[in-house]
Structure formats: C-alpha cells, structure tokens
Design brief:
homodimer, about 325 residues, five-stranded mixed β-sheet, 13 strands, globular
C-alpha cells in the first residue's frame, strides 16, 4: 500500500527570460499539471505575481487545492538561493534595477513555503536527479536561451559561492577588445554572442556588413530569431551555417576555459537553441578540442539535456521546493 | 600529558618550477627541519628523486630517523591527487613529456606512504588550515611563481574535478588574438603574461619596442627577472611601474571571470611576485572592480598569503601527507 502524504505536491516554476512555466510535481518527479504565462510585459513585479497566481489557481484546484501543496520551488535568472531574491536581472523588465524578494512574495500570496534558485542551477539539479547527469559528481549545465546561464556541480554539490550567485558563466568575457554590449552593462560577454538573441545579432551583423546571399535576407532583419537561422541552416544556407559555426566555436572556446576551472565530466547544453543539434554541437566539440589544455583533451562529454522542453527546469525548481 | 605518536612527523615537499623545498612537519603544523634542492637541471626524474632523497637523509636523521615519519605529502605542478602522478608539466624538464609516478617513486625509496597534489592545491590547503583562509568555505588561491597556478575551494572542499586536474587557472585564455606563446603549447594563457617569467617578457617587450628611458636598460635584457622589475619600480621607474600595472590589470580581469564561476569570498595571492605588494595588488583590485559583473562588485577580498615564504605550500603538502 502506497503511503499517502497529506501534501503530496510541490509547485515548480521555471522562470525564463521569455516564458514562466509552472508545474505541479509529485515526489517521484511526475508533472501532474502545468500552466504558463509570459515573463515580460509587466511593469511591476506585483503584476507578474498576480498573473502567476491567477494562472496557478486552476491547476492547483486540479490536484485538490492548495492544501495538497507542500511548497514551491523557483528557478529564476539571477536568483539567489540564500536570500530567495532576484537581484539585478538584466533580462527581466521588472527585475533589472534592484532586489526582488520573489520567494517571500509568492509565500505570502500562496501560503506555502517558497525556495528560489538560479534558473540554470535548477536545470542542473533537474539533470542530476532526473536527466543525463544522473550519477555524475562534476558537470556544468549551460543554458542557451534568451540569455546564457550555467549551473555548476562540483563534488556532487551545486556551486553557490559566498553570496549565492556563483555560476554566471554567460558573463565571462570572450572579447576584451571591441566586444558587443551585453545586457549586464559590460561588453564582450559570452551571452552577448551565444544566447538566442546573440545568434540573431550575429545574423543581423553578417547581413548588414556583407552582401552574401542568404535565405535570411527574405526576413525583416529586426525580427530574425535564432530559430530562423536554424531553419535556414537546415535548408543548407551557407551564411546561416556560418552563424551557428561561429556561435558553437565561441561556446567551445569558453568551455575550454571552464575545464581549466572545474574539469567537469560533462558539459550539458540546455534550452531552445540545442534544437539546432549538430549545427551547434559539432563546432562546440571541435573548438573545445582545439583549445583545451592538453591534459583535459578528450575527457569531457558534450551532451544535450535529455529532458523534454522545460521539464528539467521545472523538475529542478520543484526539487528545490522539496528541500524547503 | 601529551600523547606521543610513534610516528609524529610527515614530510612536506613543495615542488616548484625552480626550487623543491622539503619540511619535516609535526601534527600541529610546526616545521621541525627543512632542506631544499633545485627542481631543474636533472635529465631524468630518477636523478631528481636521488637528489631529493640525498638532501632529505640528514633532516630525517635530525628528527630521529625514518621510523618517526608517518608519510610524505607532495605539492607539484600538474600533480594529480587521484593517481599520485605528475602529468605533462610544461615547466619541469623531467616532467614535460609524459606521466611521472612521483608518489610511487618516493614511496619505494623512503618506505613511507606518499600522497601528491597540485602545488597550488597544497598552498590552498595550507592557507585553509594555517593561513588567511581559515574559516572560509569558498576561496581561490592564485600562485604567482615560475608559472601561474591555482587552488580552488568550493563549499570547504578542494576542487579536483573528474580527473584530479581541476584548477588550472593559469591556462585560461586572456588574449584570443595574437596571444603570447605559453609553455603549455597554446597561446594567450594568463600564465604567459602574469607569471614571474611573463613579467620579465613584458619588460623585454617594452624595452625592445619603445625607446622610453628606464633603469631596466642597465641590465642584460635576457637576464631581467620580475624581481629586477619590482626593484626598479620601487625606485620610481615609470616603465617598471607600468609593467606591474599591466600585469595586475590582467590578473584583475581574470579574477572577474573567476568570480562568475565560483563567487569566492577571497582571492589569495601566493608566491614570490606578491613581494611587489601594492605595485601589483592595487591594479588587480582596480581592474577587478572595473570588470566584474555588478552583482559581485565589492564582495571579494584580495589577500596576500599570510604564511612566510614557502611555508604554506610545505604545510599544505604535509597536510596531504597526514591524510594518507
């Protein structure tokens, strides 16, 4: 006979730069119900929380009401595990300029305990418990989405650092001279080149500075997305392939530096851009092999998240909730 | 009454690119006797081990003979804690081209168990147990010697990675275009600029490519050392001050990237070049503040090793010995 907990579920929230995905998760990691809202478009964080709670209400009812919910876990950009806050998140319209006590706000609105961590850390926990990192003690998850994030696991533990903000590998500097401006206020960050928006910028730059033919010229340059580039590359478009080649090479060079730090067993790529498959993974591996210190060569695996869509992030966020 | 162990001492060996310093250490971290040999100048590792054992013999006798020795701990460049080997160490004439089972070799010659780790990891253990990192859970030791090494502590544990080689921060790439060649076979590494030999190279470059006056022009360019540059800077030599400014700035920029990885409570600098004091520490701190992601600004301490000379490394190496 299965033991029934009085509060058998946690809410996991994968708070991304574009979408916020909620899942009601049981203790075996099964997602019982989901809902989602847009992350942006709210002037104030209060409006975002209102919209979240409104979207959550029906799915909470679906599993038997708030009394069945033990806690909530949130994975969010610039999320701080120690304080439950989001601090100076450059990609969030309502979280850019200060410290947002999001865990506390949800706690007050829902009446359940809420824990929060970096979105990429949540993905790393998800991969470690349910995904391709099962059994690994040293690995790095790199999330390729609106921004570039990372969750670093060393000796089987997430690296939070002295302040809860460790693992901001999207903001190592890849171009020290004439680097692209980044949402963080600096220049030359990995994220400015290798995020989905970075890929679109690369496309616009190449279209504007060359007269090479490309399927991408049929699109309004301002509206080009990384998905458009991926589709064009899939059709054999040379310029589009070169954009992914450039992006992958820079990621591979960055991973070579990360190996010098924590010598991980694997780099695990996560997020929408991994749908480009070999288009991006092959140049990553090639550039890594060409750039990594010889003692590390050939050791690290390069993997794509094995969990469907946003599941890893939602499951990871929910895992944080179980620990409340 | 103090409990007397039958084997009250360990041998600590700080194996540097230039000198190998041995210390006989008791369980309270007191160094009872020391000796040293040059690390280089041996064709084969067997000759190096012979010279080491010959130098050790009298100090071992001094503390009562080999029966009083519990174990030996070694801190060495490219040292691997897991396997007790030194692998492809670019700065060691007898360790450059392969895998040297140094722990096993000393074990067979001395008849005591021998453990080995990266020299910078040993320094980090020394700082954590006896030095300025006491009580810290997250810090990075950066060793500025013949090369640039690092020992990284996360959640109170040394970062060894999947293969025992994590923490090679001297080999992150700081110049991706036209970088200086490095002993590791690649180009643009931090070590090629910010090691003692890197500082001397910067001096030679500036003397050769400008006609600016400098006290350093009185020296044979091929024989200039980082100490010469430090002495000239101390006398107010503008060119020499600029060399340390350049070196410190690059270290500060590198530390800004390292913060994005593990957000340490402190960066601890260790090794001969720290004798330059503010000449190097001030530009490090300034460049760090100017380059670090805003969420990290003002958080990390910048410290110089509090342990005299090679003590931290010898004590750290000995601590590895206690754990055998």
């Amino acid at each position: 006979m299965e033991q029934q907990s009085l509060k058998p579920y946690v809410i996991g929230l994968d708070l991304g730069g574009t979408n916020s995905v909620f899942g009601i998760v049981d203790s075996r990691g099964e997602i019982k119900a989901t809902t989602a809202i847009k992350t942006q478009g709210y002037e104030k964080v209060e409006d975002y929380v209102d919209a979240s709670v409104a979207a959550l209400q029906p799915v909470i009812e679906e599993v038997g009401g708030i009394d069945k919910i033990k806690a909530m876990g949130i994975g969010a950009p610039n999320g701080n595990y120690y304080s439950g806050t989001i601090e100076f998140a450059p990609n969030l319209s309502w979280g850019r300029d200060g410290i947002v006590p999001l865990a506390k706000m949800f706690e007050e609105r829902l009446g359940v305990p809420v824990a929060l961590t970096n979105d990429a850390n949540a993905a790393a926990i998800g991969e470690m418990i349910y995904g391709v990192a099962r059994g690994m003690k040293n690995f790095i998850v790199i999330t390729l989405g609106t921004g570039v994030g990372s969750g670093i696991v060393v000796n089987g533990q997430l690296v939070y650092g002295c302040d809860g903000f460790a693992g901001e590998l999207g903001h190592v500097i890849m171009r020290r001279e004439n680097g692209r401006s980044c949402g963080c206020g600096r220049s030359g960050c990995l994220e400015a080149y290798c995020s989905a928006t970075g890929v679109a910028r690369t496309a616009r730059e190449l279209l504007a500075t060359t007269d090479r033919p490309s399927l991408l010229r049929e699109l309004n340059p301002e509206e080009i997305t990384s998905l458009d580039v991926s589709i064009a590359a899939g059709k054999g478009d040379e310029l589009a392939k070169e954009i992914y080649e450039f992006t992958g090479r820079m990621l591979g060079e960055a991973c070579a530096d990360f190996a010098a730090f924590s010598s991980p067993e694997a780099f695990i790529f996560f997020g929408g851009m991994t749908k480009a498959g070999d288009l991006i993974m092959e140049p990553i591996k090639k550039a890594y092999d060409e750039n990594v210190l010889n003692i590390f060569r050939g050791k690290a695996k390069f993997l794509v998240s094995g969990l469907e869509g946003a599941s890893a992030a939602v499951l990871g966020a929910s895992a944080v909730g179980w620990e409340v």
